[in-house]
Structures are given as structure tokens and as C-alpha cells.
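Form 12-C: Joint structure prediction
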Amino acid sequence: MKTSFVSTSTIAQSLRYQTMRLQTELLKGETELSSGILADKGVVLGARTGNTVSFTRDIDRLETMKTANSLAATRLSTTQTSMDQMIATGDAFFKTLMAAQNGDASPALALSDAKSAFSAIHDIMNMSVNGDYIFGGVNTDIKPLPDFSNPSDPARQAFDAAFALQFGFSQNDPQAANITGAQMQAFLDGPATDLFLGAGWATLTSASDQPIITRITTGETAQTSVTAHDMGMRHLIMGSVITMGLLGSNVSAAGVKATLDQASSLVGSAVSQIAGTQAEMGTVQQKISRANERTEMQISLFTKALNALQGIDPYEASTRVTNLMTQIETSYALTARLSQLSLLNYLPR
Amino acid sequence: MSLTSALGIAQRSLFNTSRQTTIVSRNVSEQNNADYARRAAILVSTTQGARIAQVQRATNEVLFRQNLSAISSASGHQALSAGLDQLARAANGGSDESSFASLLGRFEEALEIYSAAPSNRNLANEAVESARDISRALNQATAAVQGFRADADGQIKSAVDDLNTYLKEFQSVNQEVVKGTPLGHDINDALDRRDLLLKQISEIVPVSTIGRADNDMMLMTADGIMLFETVPRTVSFSANSTYDANQTGNRVYIDGVPLARGTNAASPGTIGALMHLRDEVAPTLQNQLDEMAHAMVNVFGPTGLFETTPPIAITDKGFAGAIRINAAYDGMTGGDPELLRGPAGTAISDNTQLRDFLTRLADPISISADAGLGSGSKALGAFATDSISWIESQRRSAAQSLESKNALILRTSSALSNMTGVNIDEELSLLLELEQSYQASARIIKAVDDMLKTLMAAVN
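Section 2 - Result
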């Protein structure tokens, strides 16, 4: 007759099972404690596991965007500094031109100042950041501004050729002394304007008129460079080049006066136009820094959400591990004691 | 009613006691055997003393059947859980770092950085390498998924072979039982062996048993296909050693009738679970990989960054196994990664094409219902993370079911063991009683012997 309802193997088996289960939990708890995130995301989160992947991906993406934006921001701040320098050069040149117009300075002074102004503009506009010419538009691999001060440069030769085409002789020809002010004005308003401020500019510069466009957030783009086709710069360049090219040659005094007048009006308006471009670029810089702020906020929101999904509270985890260890020790003690509990120990020997 | 009969009864008692001691010693030796049912001697009284009528084997039909069905469930869910784990690792890597979703994110980052500095050839290279990671991951995932299906076939084949072996053994044991019962032989060991075989068979397919006369047993699968009826039915299966995405797997036939597949919620038996994995989960996963590969080819155009080798129609399955980087963009084989920025002659800092790619990668794609993630249109990134969610949610429900099935099997096997197992202390206390009984019977024999001696002495 069976009177008991417990078999020996059940007692042993259930203790074993519990000990094994506790050990598995302990292992999981240790992993979680040391890594700070769930040991097996899939089993705990199930269908929300995809969310953790998408948050992680978005956070990485936003960080990358911030890095990419810093490249654009560097380019813009270099551009701003360059434009500041151009305005300063333009202001100084303008003063000399005014003095030359009033007769307080000789045309020779105006010529040498034009040469140094152009040299400064040439250096500024051909500045490169990380190997890219910042005023080249999308053609960042070629110098945007040719060297008009070098007589054998093709751009300078194009200017000289335009002069020769208009008058039939070059500016160093003795016949140049007979040029009237009106004739010079016609040349400056016609072919010269066409060459620098019109369609001819594209033949002189290898810069593209397409500025660099950068994605500053996943939905926004911004123009982040100024090209050498900017009107203000072209005015400034024209002012210095006509002064360089026509003063100090055989051109008549009337021609020189017309040139100086035209140059000073060009340089004057150049400075204010460049300031206008600076303001536009300043807006873009602000747009980028606001976009970065928004990106930063998004990153911190996503990080919080990600931690809510897969994060482990270290205090809770360490408490759990300690409890598990206590439970395992208890089950070890029980196993040892129960195995000693047997009728055999009480049978008379 | 004489001294002789007293002697005879005492002798019989000694014999019974020694038989009972054998039974006790058998019980004690099998205390840890989970497949042994406790034996007990049934004594009946006759005029010549007690007699062991039979050695009874402890049974409990209800608990045994419950245990069998728990075993089927647990082993099916075990196979399902292990298989899903394997598929999830194959497609997504250890912590989803080699999943298409993560790699797509990294590719978009590489394109983003390249579009911020398009004149940098190194960044172009990195973007192409990132794309190569994607195509490689898709190829490897496809190979792993199809390899898994071939593995599953191998496992089903070995399970079917085991099943055939068990059924043959079952036949011989059953015959032993059927022959022995009318003759009154001790068939308890054969019954133990038969129960063990039933447990082993139900791990593979869920069985229901029908008892007949003379302890005969008929076996049927849970959906009513006859497995054993005096003779075993043949279970047949032809395994494929390799799989490609267009191949469907063969079914298991019992006597010509195909076995049903398991579904996720009720995957009893190893075979049912493996077939579910091979025929439903793995192909759906493959379809998801194919959709993602299609999307990449569509964004960049048929002659763009991604192409297929060998060329394969976009509607064919296994597209993800054929996707490659177009050699014209591959810097390592003489191609030019800067083609990503545009055809030759594009300005060096012109990122219009790159920005266009980035916009298109974020656009919704149309997805087919075969991929198991709904139909209609969805952004590629969202589709990719949905694919991860899909398999992880299956893993989760399989793991939870497995936990509950394991708890169930622990309870049913404990209950069965408590009813039919051996308790050492009980056996030892029985042994104490038997010892006393043996001493008492020996004492009686001595007493009768003394009395007979007295009689003989009186006569002599």
C-alpha cells in the first residue's frame, strides 16, 4: 500500500531545478550589471526591439550630422573673416582713390595702392580650407581668381585684348595719350563692365556660380559658401584691375581721371555689397547653430527614450544579484541537509 | 490444523517475506530512475497462509497522459525557441549590429559626411565600403537562412529515423505485453519499457494512446494519423541537402498521410516545430531580406551602386543573395567610388546627387504582404527595424511559452513521480517490518520444531 505522496527523486529533482534556475538568473544579472543594458533585449522587449535599433541609429545619424555641420560652419567663418579683410582692403583703397581724385595724391600712388590691394584680394579669394578653395563654388579644386597683375596671365591678356579691340591699340601705345574722357567712359561702361560684371566673367574665372549646399538637418539644406561670382567682389576686383591696367601707361590724363572716378564708385559700392553678403552668410550661420541646438535636443531625447527601453538601473540590478546569491546559498545548504535526512541514519547498527 | 500446517504456513511466510524483500531491493535500486514505476506485492490470504497474488505496478493513467502532452509541448517549444534564436542571430547578429537596419544607418551616415565634403575621395571610398557591408550582410543572411532550412531538414530526418526505431522497439515490447498478460506472466518490466518509449515518441510527435484488450495499445498522432496498430506504420521523409530561396521543403508522411505543421502558439513535437520554422518563419525572413535588397537597387538605379550577380529578376526570391556592389564604383577592383557623386565631369564639390540619394533613402517604399510586415508603403529604415521587431517578438513569445511549458513539465513529471515513484524512507520502513516478520516466522518454525522434538522425545 502506498502511503506517501512524495517520491525521493522528486525531492532531489525539484531542488536541482531550482538551483539551476537561480544560477541562470544570476548569470543574466551579472551581465546586466556590468553592461548597464538588458542582457537579452529581444526576449524582454519583443516587438519593441526594433525601436531600440532605430533610436541607436538615429542618435548616431544626428551626431554625424553635427560633425558634418561643423565642416560647413568652419567654411562659413573663414568666409566671413575673408570678407572682413576684403572690406578693410576696399576701404583703404577707396581712401587712396578719393585722394587721387582730389589731387591730394598722385596717380602713381593710386597705381601702387591698386597693385597691393589686388595682391591682397588675390590672396584672400584664393584661400583654401582643407584643400578646398572656399570661393570656388562647387569647383573647389581650382583657384577661383586669376592673377590680373601678371601681364602674361590669360585673364589679364583678355582685359588688354578688350582694350585693344575697343581702341585699336594697347594702353602703352603713344596713341593712347589721345583718348578722351568720354571714350574711356564708353570703354569702362561697355566692354569692361561686360567682362567683369556681365557674361564675360565666366570666361575669366574657373569658379562655379553654384554655391555649396549642405544638409544641416535631415529636412533642411542651406547655402554654405560664397562664390567668386558674388557681385560685391566683382565690383572690387574690377575697380582694382582697371586701376592697375590703365594707370602708369600712356593713357591720357582725362582717361586716367575717368578711370579713377569709375574705380572709386565701383569700390564704394563693393564694400556695401560685400557687407550685404556677410549679412546673408550670418543668417546661414545662425540657421546652422539653431539646427545644431535642435539636433542636440533630439539626441538627448532619443538617448533618454533608449535608456528607458533597454537600460538597467544599476542599484536594482546589484540588489537583485545579491538576493540571488543569497537564495543560491540557501538552496545549497538545503540540498546538503536534505541529503543527510534519511531513515538509514536511524536504523540500529 | 496441525503442527505440520503451522510449519507449512510459517515456511510460506518466509518465502513471501523473501519475495517481498526482493521487491523492496528492486525499488530501492531504481529510486532515481524516472521511468520506473514502484512495485508492490499484493498478498491474499488462503487456508494455507498468505500468498503473493501479484506484483502490482503503480500507475496513474491521467497523470501519465498529462505528462506525455507536456513533454510534446516542451520539446516542440524548445526546438522552436532554439531555431528562432538561430535565425535571429543569422539575420541580425549578436546585438543587432550586423542587421540591415544598423548597416543602413551607417551607410546613410557615410553618405551624409561625404555630401558635406564631396571633394574628399577617402570619404567616397568609405561610403562605397559601407555599401559593400550592406550587400555582404544581405548575402550572408540569405546564406544563413537557407542553410538553416537545410539544417532543419537534417534534424527532421534524424527525428524521423529515431521515430521509426522507437516504433519498431514499441512493436516488440507491445508483443511481449500482449503475450504475457493472458498467461499471467510478470510483464511489469515490459510495461516500464513501453512507457519509456511513449515518452521518447511524444518528444518527436504528440501521440494519443488507445488501450485494447490484453494491455494492447494503439498509437495515433494528435491529428488522428495512425502510428501503430499491431505493426508500426512507416514514417518517411526525404531531406534536401541544400536549399535556395525558391525551393519548398518536403513534408513528413506517415503511411502516405502528410503530418500537419505546427503554428507558433501550439508547436507540439520537434517535427512540427522544425517544419514551421523551415516553411513559414525562414521564407518570410528571406522575403524581408529580399524587399530590403530591392529597395537598395531601386534607390540607386539598375546601373547604379548596387547590382545583382548573376542578374536576377526583381520579383525572384533570393534577390538578397545576389546583390553586389557595381564593379564600376568599387575602388578595390579598379572602379571609381567618386562616381557616387555623379558621372565623370561633375564638379568636385557638387553634392546634388548625394543629397538626392539621401532623400530617396528616406522615401517610402512599397512592400508586399509576403514579407509579413503589412502591405502598402513604408520608409526603408522603418521597414528594416520592423523586421528586427518581428523576429524578436516571435523569439519573445517562444521564450515565454518555453518557460511556461518547462514549468508545466516539471509539475506533471513531479506529480507522476510522486504517484508512481519510489520513496526510500517508505521502502526502508517496509524492510524493517519484513525483517520483524521474517524473525517472527523463523521463531514460529523454531517453536514448532521444539514442539515436534518434545513429541518425538515423548514417543521415544
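Section 3 - Comments
The first strand of chain B starts at residue 39 and ends at 46. The radius of gyration of chain B is 36 Å.
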